[in-house]
Design brief:
Structural class of chain B: alpha/beta
Largest sheet of chain B: 6 strands, parallel
Number of domains of chain B: 2
Structural class of chain A: alpha/beta
Number of domains of chain A: 2
Order of helices and strands of chain A: EHEEHHHHEEHEEEHH
Order of helices and strands of chain B: HEEEEEHEHEHEHHEHEHHHEHHHHEHH
CATH architecture of the largest domain in chain B: Alpha-Beta Barrel
Largest sheet of chain A: 5 strands, mixed
Number of strands of chain A: 8
Strand order of the largest sheet of chain B: 5-6-7-8-9-10
Number of helices of chain A: 8
Largest interface: A-B, 55 and 59 residues
Helix content of chain B: 40-55%
Strand content of chain A: 5-15%
CATH class of the largest domain in chain B: Alpha Beta
Oligomer: heterodimer
Chain lengths: 261, 423
């Protein structure tokens, strides 16, 4: 029996997605959709199959992509995947099919719309990764943890882990993604994913002396002073300013957040 | 330390340092050892941007704004009646560490007014860098200002702790320097540049033989020129820049549009607008030199002493050399594609890669992201549709300006009349 119009559902992880890819190739499936189980919208023509994440299968796909494509190809797929855009899985599937079926490398054929789009989405995610490396602001808590909250458009935590681990090797730190309710916690030995109870209403301002050390507010004020003093008024160009520091990031930027102004 | 006093010092000494426009934190690899603080992987990060749109990557401050010199273009000149302050070495170290730990900055850019003597000043700057590296195990970025007149020995030591060293030439012409900074000699600027260049070469060649040779100013040196203070031409500015790039292997030359800070008959009046557009065109020219394979004489010469403010310098050049166009996107050499107006380096890369697979047409080129409005007069691609009229340079320029909106449009007439009125 030919199985068509199948709708695969997975747990939202990259490994889960790659497991879907493995099954599609192994069983020669024609799928109508691949989606994260929570955003599932059943339609009456397709049959939903839950795919259990299998790290071994995922690793085989990774190895295959590195072999048929390159390390850069795998990285590009991972970046694009983390965009969490609706329908990105099917686009990645066509991209991966291209990689596996073409005899010559295709990942740089920017005249192919699929290749160009994946490259552009991956680039967007990469840009936000870089922005997070720039815009994260730590505050020192009473128990000596440098703590930061973020709400990035894309799921960049897995991409920034390495950067922060290398840079802040001698201090405890937490970077918490409020949108996805998951964080990174580095405890001087290693970095783990954690989940903590923070709501959007929690008082995370440096003034909150129940949470932060008293000097924290002073350093924030020094930083705000510096930010103000280093500006050249006769050259003000707010358009350029907002282009570089988009407003959606202001909330957690010590020098831009509104409570102090 | 008293918080209020530190805040006041920070205000004064950041305010005084802001005219140094470099805030680069790239080009130096310094990896974290023994679980210290900081790691530079060669890619700079702008942690914020000021309201004037400039990158904030480093804590950029003066150690002190006390100064024995009286340079007309400088806010900290000794005759200027302003608040003076000085940081202690420990205060700078503590600010740097605490800002870095909170991910505010990539590192420190420390400059200073010259107090007592050049050597005395340089020694203090070196002390800060040394303390950060040796006592605090700090692997972030450090940019130190080379103080004109400091001894070679101190300059050598500075490079062992700093990633970048810079001395600002400030005034692009020697005659301008005599006029505005009578206390300073041209040689005083050149000497530290020469010393740093020689040390960089020495350490690099030793490193080839002995791997444990320490790093010396791995991000190289840079300099800055003020434009629009002495009536110099764009050719004067860019020929100086090209000279410094070549002679001292500068990593960067920065151009800083003069900001009127004093009532002085030798300088543009207070309230004159900062020549931002001119500055922008100079940077575009600088990029053409460093990344696009242009020789400065192609862009500025006896016939063309100043850049066209209305259009970018690459387009200007192309309009003067219409005989080289149109260029076939699908066949031309990479160097030629790089020279087409409206096509940047990233698009060049995509074009070169993509044309291996397919003949590219207008649709491909648009999606790749070239500025078709400018490029279309200079290229042919896989399409019968291309510019067939025999247009003159003036006509093309008119058409391009007609079909584009520039944020600078309102400035053209203003700035031009201002320049003419003054010089």
């Amino acid at each position: 029996m030919v199985r068509t119009h199948i709708h695969l559902s997975y747990d939202g992880s990259f490994e889960g997605f790659l497991t879907c890819i493995f099954i599609i190739f192994e069983e020669k499936l024609t799928v109508a959709a691949i989606s994260y189980s929570e955003e599932l919208q059943p339609d009456m023509f397709s049959k939903i199959e839950m795919v259990a994440t299998d790290v071994e299968k995922a690793n085989r796909v990774k190895a295959g992509l590195e072999k048929r494509g390159s390390e850069a190809v795998l990285k590009k797929i991972h970046h694009a995947f983390l965009s969490e855009q609706t329908g990105i899985e099917m686009k990645l599937l066509s991209f991966i099919k291209l990689i596996f079926t073409s005899k010559t490398p295709v990942d740089k054929d920017f005249s192919n719309p699929v290749v160009l789009e994946i490259a552009q989405v991956a680039k967007m995610v990469h840009r936000e990764k870089h922005r997070m490396e720039a815009f994260i602001r730590f505050k020192l808590t009473k128990d000596d943890i440098f703590f930061a909250v973020i709400e990035p458009d894309f799921n960049v935590l897995p991409l920034i882990l390495d950067h922060f681990e290398k840079r802040y090797a001698d201090q405890n730190w937490i970077i918490y993604d409020l949108k996805r309710k998951i964080g990174l916690y580095y405890n001087l030995q290693q970095t783990n994913y954690i989940s903590v109870e923070i709501t959007k209403n929690s008082d995370l301002n440096a003034q909150n002396s129940d949470v932060y050390k008293t000097e924290e507010l002073e350093f924030e004020q020094l930083w705000q002073q510096y930010f103000k003093s280093t500006n050249i008024k006769s050259r003000v160009n707010m358009r350029l300013h907002v282009q570089h520091v988009p407003k959606r990031y202001w909330k957690y930027l010590t020098e831009k957040s509104s409570w102090q102004n | 330390m008293s918080f209020e006093r530190i805040k006041e010092k920070l205000d004064i000494l950041a305010d005084a340092a802001k005219y140094d426009i470099s805030c680069s934190s790239s080009g130096s690899k310094r990896s974290n050892k023994n679980k210290g603080l900081g790691n530079s992987d060669g890619v700079g990060i702008c942690h914020s941007y000021t309201e004037d749109g400039r990158c904030v990557s480093l804590l950029k401050i003066l150690l002190t704004n006390h100064c024995i010199f009286d340079c007309a273009y400088c806010v900290t000149r000794k005759s200027n009646d302003i608040k003076r302050a000085a940081f202690k070495v420990e205060e700078v170290v503590s600010l740097t560490m605490n800002f870095y730990r909170r991910n505010y900055i990539e590192g420190l850019f420390l400059s200073s007014g010259i107090f007592n003597s050049p050597d005395h000043t340089m020694e203090r700057l070196v002390q800060v860098a040394k303390k950060l590296r040796l006592e605090e195990n700090f692997n972030g970025y450090i940019h130190l200002k080379s103080i004109p007149g400091a001894s070679d020995e101190l300059m050598r030591e500075a490079g062992l702790y700093a990633d970048r060293l810079s001395v600002n030439i400030e005034i692009p012409t020697i005659s301008g320097l005599k006029l505005l900074a009578p206390d300073k000699k041209h040689e005083d600027f050149i000497k530290p540049m020469e010393a740093v260049k020689n040390s960089i070469q020495l350490y690099q060649s030793e490193k080839k033989l002995i791997r444990s040779t320490p790093k010396y100013a791995p991000a190289g040196q840079s300099t800055q020129m003020i434009v629009g203070a002495t009536g110099e031409s764009d050719r004067d500015v860019m020929y100086s820049a090209a000279y410094y790039y070549k002679k001292f292997q500068m990593k960067r030359v920065y151009y800083s549009g003069y900001i009127p800070i004093a009532q002085d008959s030798r300088l543009p009046a207070l309230g004159s607008p900062v020549p931002l557009l001119r500055e922008n065109r100079l940077y575009q020219t600088d990029w053409l030199l460093r990344f696009y394979g242009f020789d400065i004489r192609e862009l500025l010469n006896e016939e063309n002493q100043n850049l066209d403010l209305e259009i970018d310098p690459k387009l200007s050049w192309a309009l003067r050399n219409l005989d080289l166009f149109p260029i076939d996107i699908n066949r031309a050499d990479k160097n030629l594609i790089t020279r087409i107006p409206g096509i940047g380096l990233k698009s060049v890369y995509k074009i070169i890669e993509a044309r291996r697979y397919n003949k590219l047409n207008w649709d491909h080129l648009k999606k790749i992201g070239i500025a078709v409005n400018r490029a279309k007069y200079f290229i042919t691609c896989d399409s019968k549709d291309f510019e067939k009229r025999d247009l003159t340079a003036v006509k093309i320029k008119g058409l391009i300006l007609q079909n584009s909106t520039s944020k600078f449009r309102k400035d053209y007439s203003n700035q031009l009349s201002l320049f003419e009125a003054k010089w």
